[in-house]
């Protein structure tokens, strides 16, 4: 069975990131944008990351320019914007597409695991996928769902048993 841990992605710094590195952790995968009405959610995402990181949790941000051209910058510009304006320290990845024929395999997988209001398509920036320690999607959240509203679900996922052979980070 395919899980998030079977994929890799390019980090915003250009490095290859094997998502198996997150095996045993709970992660929140989010497609982000710097010029969106939901962009202030970066602050809440960072707060979630800070609150739960020492328990084996990480936010993974994937910038996307597919919705209204709201992420026009280069990876370097995006990284600087996020750090400067929201103090983002959680992992960011290179800009990706999340829908259509050019969709990154991570998002093809996440969408197939948990559909939303538009079937498996992602509706807009800041769609969120909570992934359990086993790499399977626990839940999907609409762009309008503020990160603080997800905290109880993160707590529950962190309380779940760690799968055999996967040490929490």
Automatic annotation (TrEMBL):
Thioredoxin domain location: 1-159
Pfam families (UniProt xref): GSHPx
Gene Ontology terms, MF aspect: peroxidase activity
Keywords, alphabetical: Oxidoreductase, Peroxidase
Keyword Oxidoreductase set for record: yes
InterPro entries per UniProt: Glutathione_peroxidase, GPX_AS, Thioredoxin-like_sf, Thioredoxin_domain
SUPFAM superfamilies referenced in this protein's UniProt entry, alphabetically: Thioredoxin-like
Family listed: Belongs to the glutathione peroxidase family.
The protein, known as: Glutathione peroxidase
Organism for this UniProt entry: Nocardioides abyssi
């Amino acid at each position: 069975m395919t899980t998030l841990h079977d994929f890799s992605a390019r980090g915003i710094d250009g490095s290859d990131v094997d998502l198996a590195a997150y095996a045993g952790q709970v992660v929140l995968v989010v497609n982000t944008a710097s010029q969106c009405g939901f962009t202030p959610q970066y602050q809440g995402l960072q707060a979630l990351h800070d609150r739960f990181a020492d328990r084996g949790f990480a936010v993974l941000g994937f910038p996307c320019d597919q919705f209204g051209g709201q992420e026009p910058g280069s990876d370097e510009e995006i990284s600087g914007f996020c750090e400067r304006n929201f103090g983002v320290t959680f992992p960011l990845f290179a800009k990706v597409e999340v829908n259509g024929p050019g969709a990154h395999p991570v998002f093809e997988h996440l969408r197939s695991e948990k559909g939303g209001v538009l079937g498996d398509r992602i509706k807009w920036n800041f769609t969120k996928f909570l992934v359990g320690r086993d790499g399977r999607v626990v839940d999907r959240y609409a762009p309008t769902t503020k990160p603080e509203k997800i905290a109880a679900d993160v707590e529950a996922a962190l309380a779940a048993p760690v799968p055999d052979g996967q040490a929490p980070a």
